[in-house]
Design goal:
Layout: H1 2-80, H2 82-113, H3 117-123, H4 125-131, E1 148-151, E2 158-159, E3 173-175, E4 179-184, E5 191-196, E6 204-205, E7 220-225, E8 232-237, E9 241-246, E10 261-264, E11 270-275, E12 282-287, E13 292-296, E14 301-306, E15 313-318, E16 325-329, E17 333-337, E18 344-349, E19 358-361, E20 367-372, E21 378-383, E22 393-396, E23 404-409, E24 414-419, E25 424-430, E26 437-444, E27 449-454, E28 466-474, E29 479-485, E30 501-502, H5 510-514, E31 523-524, H6 563-607, H7 614-624
Parallel strand pairs: 2-6
Antiparallel strand pairs: 1-29, 3-4, 4-5, 7-8, 8-9, 9-10, 11-12, 12-13, 13-14, 15-16, 16-17, 17-18, 19-20, 20-21, 21-22, 23-24, 24-25, 25-26, 27-28, 28-29, 30-31
Helix pairs in contact: 1-2, 3-4, 6-7
């Protein structure tokens, strides 16, 4: 009977035991979860306590510093007016009682009552500050914190410009206080347009038949104004030739096709032209043949050839005094070179991405670069020349495809990042304190940019506190003028915004520079404003005639270059060649006459009076000669 009952209840007993085991597992799992939550909560409380203590220590330190400063102020005030000290001490105590103590107590209560991360973050100011990695300190002092950009009205800009559609990574624009140059589309070769900035009638819609500079046989890829002569501009093209042009003070009245000088060395297209910052008439060119050439443009001679890059050179930049050269290459490396010898002093991987990189020297020797990461994210970095492989700062911006061009203002230490195809201009301030590169603001525009040019500080309006001016090219054919201004109430000259800036006078000649001399750039003051000078003659003597002398044009209505001098030079070369040909022919005739005379004498001796008539043949040949 007992066995029968046991067999009858056996399934129920099994189900009960299995459910008990399952329940035991659930209980153990719950206990484990509770322990984990308690450990996590304990860890969070410890972290919160540490953060709170760190905040309190920092706050106490700030109070001590403020108290020390106040004691110094009170001492100074006591020496001048004893009554002012007592008044200030009473006010400070009252402010402490009314504001600082309640804030302090509120934070302590919030920490004590915190039971969840949600409450700790949203209800406790101390914990919120610590989670965001913010420190309780005074806001960084900078006179450029409130710089703002403003675009001029369309009628004050330049419209109807056929901007080049080349895919080359160039700014397509160059500007100085006298002229604005823009690379344009042109049939039958490359060309660029030059617009004088001192003519009010030149703004607005540009006529379609406006004169161009069009001597190249291929599309123009890069242009650059000479920093020491505002009338001289260099251009590089796909026809492998670098041309240097002279623009008259009042602009072009007909298309200019005759350059001052042609510089021929590269075997493939020339995509980079760069002037030396301190030496007169020294020009750097780089082509797709991986070669860099440095020229004395005044004589048309090549000074240095640099062949250390295994691939295309993306960018080049001289340092402040022109003694070092910084380059970026398609092999992802950044190099610092000796520009006189071409020796590589240091190199390192710049950015991991395969797209184009840019690098510039800052005024005090640091290196600022832009490029792409392996994931095609745009980056910028700050480095020291002694440790190029270890960037001080490396920041990722976005995932756009356009190459970023860093435009640098050495007077304010501001760097403007302008990406090709972007509709924004970001600007940063470089300072000695961390994080070294401080983001200031972004100027937003509705349409993307095709190219951009930056006006030298000499061309900025100091009366309106303008620190930078940009000429921004749109796909619609508009060249938009953008001014960067520091808001100031006073209309007086702001010396802190306008220190002495780069002038248009060279510190060295090309001969002095190639011999090894270095010199700081010559600076000028903008206190009385800057007026672009008229073309003037340079008093320099070189081995050959200097083709970039600042000689004023003989006629304002004439062409854009000294045609009479060039024509005379061509005639002189032709006459010299003809004289050489004449001398060569005379020498040959003399030799032939001698041979004929010798042959005639030999025939007379052999034939005698009854010869076979060879003498007559020789005589006829002599007469023909």
């Amino acid at each position: 009977m007992h066995v029968a009952l046991l067999l009858m209840f056996l399934p129920a007993i099994k189900r009960y035991l299995s459910s008990y085991a399952t329940l035991d597992k659930v209980i153990n799992q719950l206990k484990s979860d509770v322990k984990k939550k308690e450990a996590k909560k304990k860890k969070e409380e410890e972290t919160l306590t540490k953060m709170q203590q760190k905040f309190l220590d920092g706050f106490e330190k700030q109070l001590q510093m403020a108290d020390a400063r106040q004691r110094n102020v009170n001492k100074d005030a006591a020496s001048k007016s004893p009554s002012s000290k007592e008044t200030y001490e009473i006010d400070f105590a009252r402010v402490t009682q009314l504001f600082i103590l309640p804030f302090f107590i509120t934070n302590l209560i919030g920490v004590a009552c915190a039971r969840s991360l949600h409450y700790q973050f949203y209800c406790c100011p101390c914990y919120a500050f610590s989670c965001k990695k913010m420190s309780f300190r005074v806001v960084r002092s900078s006179k450029f914190r409130h710089v703002y950009g403003q675009a001029l009205k369309r009628e004050q800009c330049y419209d109807n410009i056929r901007v080049s559609k080349s895919s080359w990574d160039s700014t397509f624009c160059a500007v100085n206080p006298k002229f604005l140059a823009i690379i344009v589309e042109s049939a039958g070769g490359g060309a660029f347009i030059v617009l004088p900035l001192n003519k009010i009638t030149q703004v607005g819609r540009i006529p379609a038949d406006h004169p161009l500079v069009g001597g190249h046989k291929g599309p123009v890829l890069d242009i650059a104004w000479c920093p020491h002569n505002d009338n001289i501009i260099a251009s590089g093209s796909e026809d492998c030739v670098v041309k240097v042009w002279h623009i008259p003070d009042h602009g072009l009245i007909k298309t200019l096709t005759e350059p001052v000088v042609d510089l021929i060395y590269h075997q493939r297209r020339v995509g980079l032209v760069l002037w030396h910052p301190t030496a007169l008439n020294v020009l750097l060119t780089a082509g797709s043949d991986n070669q860099i050439a440095i020229w004395n443009v005044g004589t048309g001679e090549s000074l240095v050839h640099i062949d250390c890059h295994p691939d295309i050179v993306y960018s080049a930049c001289f340092n402040w005094d022109g003694s070092k050269l910084l380059t970026t290459c398609k092999d992802k490396k950044i190099r610092i070179l000796n520009p006189r010898t071409g020796e590589v002093e240091s190199d390192a991987i710049c950015h991991e991405g395969t797209k184009a990189t840019r690098a510039i020297f800052l005024r005090h020797g640091l290196v600022f670069t832009t490029g792409f990461s392996k994931m095609s994210e745009r980056q910028y970095s700050l480095r020291t020349p002694d440790a190029l492989s270890e960037p001080i700062v490396m920041v990722e911006l976005d995932t756009s495809n356009g190459v970023m061009f860093p435009l640098y203002d050495p007077d304010t230490n501001l760097v403007y990042l302008c990406g090709k195809g972007d509709s924004v201009i970001r600007y940063f301030e470089i300072t000695p304190e961390p994080p070294f590169v401080h983001y200031i603001n972004t100027f937003q525009t509705p349409d993307p940019q095709r190219g951009i040019g930056m006006m030298p500080k000499r061309g900025c309006d100091v009366t309106s506190c303008e620190i930078s001016r940009f000429y921004r090219l749109n796909n619609s054919g508009l060249c938009q003028v953008i001014t960067m201004t520091v808001p100031r109430k006073s209309e007086l000259f702001q010396e802190d915004l306008y220190p002495d800036t780069l002038g248009d006078t060279s510190a060295l000649t090309a001969e002095e520079w190639i011999e090894g001399k270095d010199a700081e750039p010559i600076l000028i003051s903008l206190k009385d404003g800057y007026k672009p000078p008229e073309s003037k003659a340079a008093i320099t003597v070189t081995k050959r005639s200097n083709m970039l002398n600042k000689i004023p044009p003989k006629s304002k209505s004439g062409g854009a270059s000294p045609v009479s001098d060039k024509t005379l030079q061509e005639f002189a070369d032709e006459i010299r060649k003809l004289k050489a040909v004449i001398v060569k022919h005379e020498t040959r005739i003399c030799k032939l006459e001698e041979e004929v005379a010798r042959a005639k004498a030999a025939n007379i001796d052999e034939d005698g009076p009854g010869g076979d008539g060879l003498n007559a043949n020789v005589q006829m040949a002599s007469d023909e000669v």
